[in-house]
Amino acid sequence: GMASEARADWQRALEKINSQLAMPKASIDLYKQRAELLKELGMQDEYALQMLRYTIEKEKTLKTKRKDIAMGWEEGIKKGLEDNERQELDKIRTEIMGNPKYKIVGQCKQCHAVVDLNARLECPNNPKHQKISDIRPSLRET
Questions:
Q1: How does pLDDT run across 111-135, given as a tens digit for each residue?
Q2: CA distance linking residue 38 with residue 110, whole number of Å
């Protein structure tokens, strides 16, 4: 029977995370926390876009590239851990992008066009196109 108080608490938590995100060098994990709060508040579109943004930003922090080959056991362990994390991010994106309402767009420098990327953040015209910039989540026009 305290739904209004609970909603107010969620709102205050969201405001606190928003203020933390405004600070320089804010943690990327705050985007995920914000997305989860938006979901609790029933803001499904905002949740999906925020979660896609989190996965994009988190993947940028990984030091190895998707197609890199490890040269040695120590590097192999690091690459394996990052590949595992990358697969988790791909899984989240695939799940969200399963809804045709959501997409990720980017500028492919080799196609010279803005393209809808797949869940692995690859150009749909050719997965070998590596120069993709301005990657961002978006809603599809209906």
A1: 889 999 999 999 999 888 888 999 9
A2: 36
